[in-house]
Amino acid sequence: MFAGLVFAADTPAVTFNKDILPILQKNCQSCHRPGQIAPMSFLTYESTRPWAKSMKTAVVTKKMPPWFSDPAVGHFLNDRSLKSADIDKISKWADAGAPLGDAKDAPKPIEWPKDGWLIQPDVVVKGVPYDVPASGLVEWTWVVLPSPFTEDTWVTSVELRPTNIPVTHHMCLAMGPHKPDAEYYKFIWNDKKRDELGDEIIDPQAQRQFANFTPGAPIPANTVFGVLSGTNGIEECYEPGRGPADFRKFGAAKLIPKGTDIAVNVHYTPNGTATSASFELGFTVAKEPPARRYLALSAAPPSDHKSFAIPANDPNFLAPAVEVEFIRDVELVGLMPHMHLRGKAANFELTYPDGRKEMILNVPNYDFNWQLWYDTSIKVPKGTKMKVLAWYDNSSNNKYNPNPNKVVYYGDMTWDEMHFPSWGVVVDDKDLSQKDVSRAVRGNFSVPQAPGPRAATVPARP
To answer: Which residues, 6+ apart, have CB-to-CB distance to 349 below 8 Å?
Structure first.
């Protein structure tokens, strides 16, 4: 009479070795291990078990693993979000007292790269130590390094690894031809005039000097403008939550021509203790010329105080749009919005040559603490246009907002704001230059009205 009934005693127990460790290996250990950004390690049962209840809370609320893309929009190759079945397993494991289980059920440990790398590099370039003060403001700083490659070299991944994660806000690189007057290993920055709130005081004379640079005229190499002159702008970066730039999955590589200089931009943030920080660059090198070429691209809207100013206490400011047009057939393989503490939401939309529109990434709840890159694969024909929108919450409802009662302008610091999206493309024609592939549609930064989010009236700066 009891045929077909299942009793609790017959239900297999959820254990660490059989059920939880495979989830951690796939979704968590890249960050939760020594030398990485997470504060605790999930490599072993002993280091994981004390966090069982916290893990349950984090996965049930979807705070962890960090992943902010709307699941109804787009398709992403690096989606780290947990399936419902995995969330259920972690919850049951924590509720059962976090049992270990049979050692025979455990998968083999992952052989992670040595020395804190996410990808074991073939070539390593060491940075320059920087003394970070205990307090105060550290401006964005550049340092130029010689390329380790004496011949044209195809690299299949690029990783920027900070040596002191707690004080490293970000680091990015730009690459360009060597300048004869460049000085290697020397820190370069602009001392900016700032008011009592930390806002930059715009110097009209400096703006005029920059605007009056004659195209082709020499710019001193050991200045911020000189460092960026001749490069393709910001390329690969380290930011919290962003993985290395790995082109292998797309059958592609990045070309580093001989005679290249590598300029690295570092942004350090004092945390109360004087310390030293540096970085390393890791490259994997193609064994043979690749089938396709990877190019890193980015753009920003005008950053002047008239067109980009978030009013005080505005909960839903829509920034000027970033618009680009693809002038070659490409495969779009990566997308990333970038904002600061007041960032609220962002999306990327394509308009194809036939007029069809497609939303390819929607981030309805942006989190500045996790700068995620979204790997994708979208065939984009010549003539396609891409629009990137971003919204900001400058109200007291934003728990990260340092001061809702001030107008917020475009700038480098976290208390300033940015709308600086990035994307990666792969092209079949390996001889194309980076600038040939995509161009910004300048002079047409309209702010369209959309259901829900709105464009706020921008006040003049007092």
So the answer is: 357, 358, 359, 360, 386, 387, 388, 389
Give 410's DSSP letter: B
CA–centroid distance for 309 within its chain: 23
The whole-angstrom separation of Cα 370 and Cα 37 is: 11
> Helix axis angle, 52-60 relative to 84-95, nearest 10°?
150
Residue 3 lies in a domain: no
Q: Are residues 332 and 374 in the same domain?
A: yes
Which residues pair with residue 263 across a beta bridge? 144, 174
Q: Residue 350 in contact with residue 358, Cβ under 8 Å? A: yes
- CA 445 to each of CA 105, 164, 310: distance values in angstroms, whole numbers, following the listed order: 57, 39, 16
Residue type, 376: T
**Model pLDDT for residues 77-131, shown as the tens digit of each residue:** 999 899 999 999 999 999 999 999 999 999 999 999 988 899 999 999 999 999 9
The token duo for 145 is 């390094």
Q: What is the domain count for the chain?
A: 3
* 433 exposure class (CB count in 10 Å sphere: 0-12, 13-18, 19+): exposed
Note whether residue 7 is domain-resident: no
Residues spanned by the domain of 95: 12-112
**CB neighbours of 147 closer than 8 A, spacing ≥ 6?**
175, 256, 258, 259, 260, 261, 262
Question: Is 63 found in the same domain as 96?
Answer: yes
pLDDT in tens, 357-381: 999 999 999 999 999 999 999 999 9
Is the same domain home to 369 and 279? no
Task: Give the predicted TM-score (pTM) of the model.
Answer: 0.87
Where does a domain end: 77, 112, 147? 112
- The CATH number given to whatever domain includes residue 252 is 2.60.120
